[in-house]
Amino acid sequence: MSKLYRRTIGTLLAGCLAAGLLAGCGNSSGENADAKETANSQETSTSGQSGTGSGEITIGVTSFADTLEPTEQYFSWVVSRYGVGETLVRFDENGEIVPCLAESWEISDDQLTWTFKIREGVKFSNGDDMTPELVKASLERTFELSDRAVSFFEPASMEVEGQNLLIKTQEPVAILPGSLADPLFLIVDTQADTESFAMDGPICTGPYAVESFSPTDSCVVVRNDYYWDGEVPLEKVTLKCIDDQTTRSMALQTGEVQIAYNLKTENLADFEDSENYNVQQLESLRSTYAFMNQNGVLADKALRQAVIRGLDKETYSDILLEGGATAGKAPVPPTLDFGFDELKDENAYDPDSAKALLEEAGYKDTDGDGFVETPSGEKLELEFVIYTSREELNVYAQAAQASLKDIGINVKLNTVSYETLLDMRDAGEFDLLIWNVLVANTGDPEKYLRENWYSTSSSNQMGYSNTEVDKLLDQLVTEFDEDTRRDLITETQQLIMDDAATVFFGYETTYLFSSKDVTGVKMYPMDYYWLTKDIALAE
Questions:
Q1: Helix (H, G, I), strand (E, B) or coil at 448
Q2: Of the chain's two ends, which shows fewer C-beta atoms within 10 Å, N or C?
Q3: Residue 215, SS3?
Q4: Whole-number Å distance between alpha carbons of 28 and 65
């Protein structure tokens, strides 16, 4: 099954991941040498771990969760990133699916039943044995409590046969193993007090267990003494919420934190004269885009086209983000082989064309305030809902507001917390709404496309509907052939672009900054893994 993902992620990322000393950033000849040096130092640190140390570190992160209950919203990502939760399978640093809590898996000849051999000898962090029956109970709990679970796949049955878990589906599901790598399906001990998971943390199998959790401040995790996959070198890790990007950078410089996530290109200057830090970068598998709610004034395709044509995404990426992103046009970034260069963008940046579209559709500035009114004469003000724990989102939003003002469209920014943004998305309370996601969270973009643009998806609250898109996505579910999947995904993207359904701002370069006081820090294309058993204090 891994062949399905090899071209789409594994081989493409091999040339994208650059891990190196900060001194090497900025010239290509130094970058390759630094990548080799960093990789070697990481190998040495991993193999030399004693596993009995009492070290502690602090990691600077952006606020994400108001609960650690993994079936709520996307908060399972935090449980995985903080080294607490694990899944049956996982992605390695090349984007390949590899065993984790399942040793192996296979599919039946009729492609309806997947058999996962559950790893023996694994214990939860409370010392209880992880059995195939408890794995089954954990997955059943996820399907019972999470509305998102069935958007990955819907099991017809789950049965235990000895050490095997058999998952049967009504129709073939090509991405089922990759789906189980999503943190939503991390395995919890259902015999524990599950009511306490929200604030005390779930009982899982990862290298760390939650000691304390404050949604707006920090999460403290401690070594899981029952961990199954080798020794855990650190006794305690504090994951400190530092939403402000500049403050997070300063915390790394002063030694308050030893690792800082979600820093950007502009932060490179903070470290360029120092030999005390490592930096890794990865061409993004993330897309930043804005939903356009077609249940309101943006039901008018001409208005949506004008909005997209009025946005200078090249300038946003190259100048405002200092080259830290690739300008967007399509759902899937060019780092994955799904036809980016083949796709035709009829709504590329063209402010004059945008103005002409508005005029032809009857949008005119009748009161002289610089902003057009609707064809019926009403004030036109688009509410753009954003959250700013990722700094680039604020950059895109403010730039879009300024660009659209130039073509006569009034945009009001509404900055809210991530949790509030989720609620507003689900309630359809927006005109435009910023979004930033991993586009290949199951190994390729099928789940991402279906979740956002399938007409009856629970996450599609923007009113987008195209019967041909639905048809292609339905075909994709049962298609195992790699080349056919590529064609289906490429065609789906073109239809979404032709419908002017969504603003695709860009695909950011992801950075990971860390002090040389720590070793074993790795960057993963599937950013489910931040704190791992490999991270240790340097000797």
A1: helix
A2: C
A3: coil
A4: 38
pLDDT exceeds cutoff 80 at 533: yes
Encode pLDDT of 66-84 as tens digits. Answer: 899 999 988 999 999 999 9
Record the tokens describing residue 479, joined without a space. 């298609």
Q: What is the pTM of this model?
A: 0.82
Q: Tell me if 499 sits within 8 A of 300, measured CB to CB.
A: no
> Which 8-state DSSP code applies to residue 119?
P
Asked if 91 and 100 count as a contact pair (C-beta separation under 8 A), the reply is no
pLDDT of 188 higher than 70? yes
- The arrangement of strands across the sheet holding 208-214 comes to 17-21, 277-282, 510-515, 259-261, 55-61, 234-241, 218-223, 208-214
Spatial separation of the C-alpha atoms in residues 421 and 387, rounded to whole Å:
7
Q: Tell me the backbone φ, ψ of residue 362, rounded to 5 degrees.
A: 95, 15
316 close to 399: Cβ distance less than 8 angstroms: yes
> What is the token pair recorded at 47?
């193999």
pLDDT band at 53 (very low <50, low <70, confident <90, very high): low
Phi, psi values for residue 58, rounded to 5°: -125, 135
Neighbours of 374 (CB within 10 A): 15
Name the DSSP class of 62: -
- Who wins on pLDDT, 180 or 47? 180
Distance CA 504, CA 316 (A): 12
Residue 508 pairs in a beta bridge with 325
> What are the residues whose beta carbons fall under 8 Å from the beta carbon of 423, sequence distance 6 or more?
none
Cα(5)–Cα(443) distance, integer angstroms: 6
Nearest to 138 by CA among 199, 200, 76: 76
In sequence order, the β-bridge partners of residue 412 are 383
Cα dihedral sign, 150-151-152-154: positive
Task: Give me the residue label for tokens 């997209």.
Answer: 308
Burial of 269 (0-12, 13-18, 19+ CB in 10 A): exposed
Q: What is the mean pLDDT of the chain?
A: 89
Sign for the pseudo-dihedral over CA of 188, 191, 194, 199: negative
Give residue 117's identity as a one-letter amino acid code: K
Tell me the pLDDT tens digit for each residue of 250-286. 999 999 999 999 888 888 888 877 789 999 988 878 8
